[in-house]
Amino acid sequence: MAVETYKWHSQLGAGPIEYSQTVRAAQFGDGYEQVAENGINSTAIQLPMKHVGAEAEVNELRTFLLTHVVKAFVITPPGEEKGLYRVVANSVRKNVISSKFAELTFTIKRAYGVYA
User: Fold this and answer.
1) What phi and psi, each to the nearest 5 degrees, are found at residue 102?
2) Which residue, 60, 61, 89, 103, is the most exposed by fewest CB within 10 angstroms?
3) What would the DSSP string read from start to end of 62-99?
């Protein structure tokens, strides 16, 4: 099964890019603490995104996003490097601007794996 590529020109959404790190820590009685990263991919990246366009284009993107909550896709998000990302569950929101245009907001999260 081939990994799909995100083909739309979207921009960052209203919120900031979030970086969250998972670490393991052991605190000892004398105040000494050992800290280590939790695995080789210990930093999670989450990006709020926004896409404004014609109703048909927004609906096509919405369908793509809703099918990629579990399945990863390739994208180069603004301000980040190309990689695998998934859509955060329940983050897709559509706002109708006019009879011809709509806005789609959603959040993507870095997924780790191998792609060609």
Assistant:
1) -145, 165
2) 89
3) HHHHHTTSSS-EEE--TTS-SEEEEEPTT--EEEE-SS
CB-neighbour burial class of residue 17 (10 A; exposed 0-12, middle 13-18, buried 19+): middle
Which two three-digit tokens encode residue 92? 């897709």
Q: Who's near 60: CB < 8 A, 6+ residues apart?
A: none
| pLDDT per residue rounded down to tens, the chain (116 residues) | 688 999 999 999 988 989 888 888 899 989 899 988 877 887 889 999 999 999 999 999 999 999 999 999 999 998 888 999 999 999 999 999 999 999 999 999 999 876 65
Cα 79 from Cα 14, distance rounded (Å) = 14
* Paired tokens of 53: 């366009």
Question: Which one-letter DSSP state was computed for residue 43?
Answer: E
pLDDT digits (tens, 9 = 90+) for 15-38: 898 988 888 889 998 989 998 887
